[in-house]
Amino acid sequence: MTKLLNIDANAKTIKGQKKGYMTAVMYLAPYKTSGINVCPFAEKAGCWQTCLNTAGRGGISKSTFEANGITLPDNAIQRARIWRTQFWANHRTEFLAQLVKEIEAFIKKAERKGLTPVVRLNGTSDIQWEKVKIPRYRNDIGPKANMMERFPNIQFYDYTKIPKRLATKLPSNYYLCLSYSAADAKYEKACTTAIINGASAVYVARDQKTKDRLLERFHEPVDGDEHDLRFLDPPQAAVVLKAKGSAKHETNGFVLG
Q1: Which burial class, exposed, middle or buried, applies to 239 when counting CB atoms under 10 A from its CB (0-12, 13-18, 19+)?
Q2: Cβ atoms within 10 Å of 89's Cβ, excluding its own
Q3: Dihedral over Cα of 199, 200, 204, 208: its sign
Q4: Residue 153 CB contacts under 8 Å (≥ 6 apart), including other chains
């Protein structure tokens, strides 16, 4: 059975271990690559063509294949992400039961290593997990409102391109930061409004020169490449990080440069 969670298997999240954290991330097939759109603002934000889905090992392949009109590297990572997303869409109860089981196992693994477990469910998706109801599982007294309520002592966090999520009351153990984009005027305005109202925002720089310029622009900016633990950032943080994968060559308003 294909696993749902990836545990500290990428260069960025593993940096969190130096701060005492172990990170589990779930990577789905972004945008419409699985036939199910799990990134509703991907077009307005301009991020679907240069998604980090093809960064790192996800982009390694000698051949490609077409997934709902989008060309992807033909490797096991991409096919597993498509499988997970279709599993999510077509067998929701079974998917959530497996996810609960894997989070439980992950918590035990982190504790054995003396690390604090943290979970990021939207590695390459933008599902509103605060709205996903969790069915009764094992010895639960009843259904849980969402995954964060199911694991109240675990810190969850995500990046999002849905500005309105930042204006809602989120579970106390779910930290969200806004992924900024100026690719669309109305979307940029929504981002600006969210930031004015207190949201932390992440800015993606095409190269080191642009990153340095952005770090100088903001008051007390955060270098987002030092680690992925966004919940450790100060309130209303301006986080700057360098583009990964094919995004390094993009200057469409999502990737700044």
Answers
A1: buried
A2: 15
A3: positive
A4: 173
64-67 and 21-26 strand pairing: unpaired
Is it the case that residue 56 has pLDDT exceeding 70? no
Does the reported pTM lie above 0.70?
A: yes
Provide the Cα torsion 38, 43, 44, 49; round to 10°: 110
Q: And the tokens for 218?
A: 């903001």
Evaluate whether 239 touches 200 at the Cβ level (below 8 Å): yes
161 pLDDT more than 80: yes
Do 173 and 145 meet the contact criterion of CB atoms below 8 Å apart? no
Are 218 and 240 in contact by the 8 Å Cβ rule? The answer is yes
Query: Which pLDDT value is given to residue 74?
Result: 64
- Give alpha helix (H) positions in 91-233: 92-112, 147-150, 185-196, 208-217
For strands 201-205 and 155-160, give the pairing: unpaired
Strands 70-73 and 64-67: antiparallel
Average pLDDT, the chain: 88
Strand 64-67 and strand 155-160: pairing?
Answer: unpaired
The dihedral of CA 88, 94, 100, 106: what is its sign? negative
What percent helix, strand, coil does the chain show, rounded to 5?
Answer: 35, 20, 45
CA–CA separation, 249 vs 93, rounded Å? 40
Distances in whole angstroms, Cα of residue 218 to Cα of each of 180, 238, 239, 240, 242: 14, 7, 9, 9, 16
